[in-house]
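Dear colleagues,

As part of the handover before I leave the project, I'm documenting each prediction I ran so the next person doesn't have to rerun anything. This entry is a single chain, and its sequence is reproduced below.
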Amino acid sequence: MTKTKSKIHYLLVLTAALFWAGFVLAQDSPYGEIIAAAGSADDYPGANVVTVFDSTDVVVEESGLSHINIHRLTKILTEAGAVRQAAYRFDYDPASNMVEIKNVAIHRADGGVDEVDISSPIDRPQPQRMIYWGPRMKLIGVSNLKVGDAVEIQYYTKGFIIAYLNTEEDESRYIPPMRGHYYDTVMFGSGHPIKEKVYVLKTPKNPVDMKVQFKVYNGNIAVSTTFDDEQNCYIFEKRDIPVYSHEPRSPGGSDYIPKVVLATVQDWYEKSRWFYAVNETTVVDLPDYGIKAKPFEFDDEIKEFTEKLIAPYKTDKEKRWAILHWVAQHIRYSGISMGHGEGYTLHPGIMTFRDRCGVCKDIAGMALTMFRAAGYTTYPTMTMAGARVERIPADQFNHCVVAVDISGEPGVESDNLPGTKWEMYDPTWAPNSMDIWSRAEGDQNIVIGDTDGEDLTAIRPFTPEENRFTINSEATIDKKGNLVGTLEISALGYADARLRRIIVYSGLEEGIWNRLSNFIGGIAPGAELISFEHDDELDFANPMVLKIDYKIPDYALHYGDGLHFLSPGGRFLPSASYLFLIFSGTNLKERENPMLMWAPQQVVINETISIPRGFKLGDFESIDKGGDFASFNASVEQKKRKINISYKYTVSERGIEPEEYPQVKETVDGMNEFADTNIHLWR
């Protein structure tokens, strides 16, 4: 064959290959009809994508090991959606689960299908901040997406997300720590619309019949169950799921997005006993320290240090208070992996005492270890910060705290739980705070890990008065309208913690000066900080008082025979909104989701303004806004040459439902109205 004929033959073969390759790329999508029926951007105002279907199939083995296949199809509605779908991320933790990408394909708007190369995904450590446990991610790029295209992904995973126990090299490392059990919380909603979501769970019947208890929350989800000789099958399905957008100050999505909570665990008592046992019996090998230790073991060094720390204190409450605050101030939040045992197993106190760092479970473990070194009966406790825990005993926790048995202490009542059996301590939330349990954690569900087992319970609710700011404002206005004033701020509970943290987190004196100058600057243009002083921010036995001296030239305006000015205290509140929980997230006219205030709060302002001789207060109508959940009232009166202003706002609940939000909005609007309302003086 000549060279020319060889080239022609080569070109014909290449052309044929490209033709057939193009044919493969242009094959008809099996999902063409449902992709088209999913609609366009006009059908979903504000949405960039719509999930056409989201299918999860879970098969559970007798050991509790789960095999999960996920199949999802997402349609691009806007160019912004195309950009956001240009890469897919698959998270995993090598210590406890794995992920295998099965297929990624682009279903083009014209009906063709482009297969994405998944042979060499980028495998990198996940971005990490404050917790460095070694999770990884696989990334697949999806290029040249257009509006109307849809991306199909299929992947398989097994195991569980957090490394609770050991890291064996065989499949046992994927078995959950509560061996023989499976539990999950399945959300049926997200930040974009979903046409259909299905979750199928299959559990074995032999040799053990692994039955599942479940409940649907926050809406309707279709449920069906089937049984045969080999397995139990549970199917949960929901169609036409709207967008559940995150509004400012929303609680965790599990509080308002439709969900299914399911578990094979019998009850919370069983979960409690397991949590106790796994932390009391696990021996952690720490080769870097040359020791093996259980989580709550203490050595002579910890024992001696603890005894010296509590020696100046008389009562048991005082001694535990001292231990808690030492741990809170000296064990920083930074999670390093100890390898074997990372996850729900608390770091041994010996390790944390030397490292001086850990995540919440390790900080709690340090307090628990020192409590035991001091002779107290203490237990680890699971809780959920920022969302509720349902009655179904699935794992719904994100935080770890400490329970102390106080039943042997005559006349002692718990500060935060009903009765005289348990008192709760949270060192993770206690830095720069007077409290042993943050008053931003009222109503919070807990499960204590105890030998006999404990039921799901909750911290008592705190009152607004337990989180109160008191602002005493003294000011003088001269005949030219210049104002010189002092704000003296004191607080209780969570309010005190926020006040202290302004001082602590602003750094050196220059940083504090700048922060307070910004607060004062919001009262009026030209406001100037003169000086400030405060009590010892590390004295957690007494409330901290902050005193601010300031001046404002030409604050009161002359108008004919009148003098007009605004309440400095009323202006200070929105200016220093960091302190006052009510201002954040209340710019919305109405809400679809609940509002999490974190803590009830009350602010009382007692303001006295000395005025020039010869002026009389004009008419001022008192303000009274809100209702049972939130309220604001303010009044102004004159006594001789002093204008006295009384001001109080109250938020009574930690969580506000959407139907209660109008009261909160009315309250904030009333506060802003008062801040902008002139007080008139006439000769």
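The first helix runs from residue 3 to 25. The chain has four domains: 1-30, 32-264, 270-461, 465-682.

All the best with the project,
I.
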